[in-house]
Amino acid sequence: MSDVFxxxxxxxxxxxxxxxxxxxxxxxxxxxxxxTGYESGFRxxxxxxxxxxxxxxxxEGITDGFNFEEKVFDxxxxxxxxxxxxxxxxxxxxxxxxxxxPEITKYPVPSYDDLLTCEADIENWKTQERIAVCPIITISxxxxxxxxxxxxxxxxxxxxxxxxxxxxxxxxxxxxxxxxNPSEAVDYLExxxxxxxxxxxxxxxxxxxxxxxDYHKLKRFARTPRRQAATSDSIHQPLYMELYSDG
Length: 247
Prior knowledge:
There is one protein chain. The protein is an alpha+beta fold. It has one domain (10-242). The chain has seven helices and ten strands. It has helices spanning 10-18, 20-36, 68-72, 112-129, 164-176, 182-191, 212-218, and strands at 40-47, 53-55, 59-60, 92-100, 131-132, 136-142, 148-155, 195-202, 226-232, 239-242. Strands 1, 2, 3, 4, 6, 7 and 8 form a seven-stranded mixed beta sheet that branches. Strands 5-9-10 form a three-stranded antiparallel beta sheet, with helices on one face. It is globular, with a radius of gyration of 17 Å.
């Protein structure tokens, strides 16, 4: 088996959003949240050494403040069901995690825990597997007409989010404003310098397939994992140096 990670191409992200397994889990999660008012979500993992994706079954929350990270996060994906897919977990990584918020606000806005999600994944992989990944975090709303609005964001590979104060300030800013259009949350995330961000609109009449404009947006989130190499030891945790960049 090759030691080189398979490059994530721009079209790989759009192909995932077009796929039947992804849209099936999206539709199921949306229906559950709309019916119950509880959060729901699922994950997508990808093989490091080929372009194969695996979409988990939907995890259903039990409150409108579902702590997705504590409830279902596990480095080995043990709390997710990938029934019948024979997932090679020892060579997969978290490519995308999506969850629905109840429509408390008109448009999706990340909570503080949501903002920490991408950092937690990256740090877990760096310390346990020594691989830097940039999962796509997606927060979605299902509207009355069954349209789905999704906010996507992704940690910028070259910036550390370990500065929790920066996240707290960003979270405080998001809580102070009333989001009147989807682009406002995107602007706050982008201007923080910590994230790539964008929104897409998925319509039921299109089978929840992205439109041409959204395909262009999704291409921004193509990030290939990078192997890390230890450079020095620390009493508390190792320090790592990037072997190569994804450009």
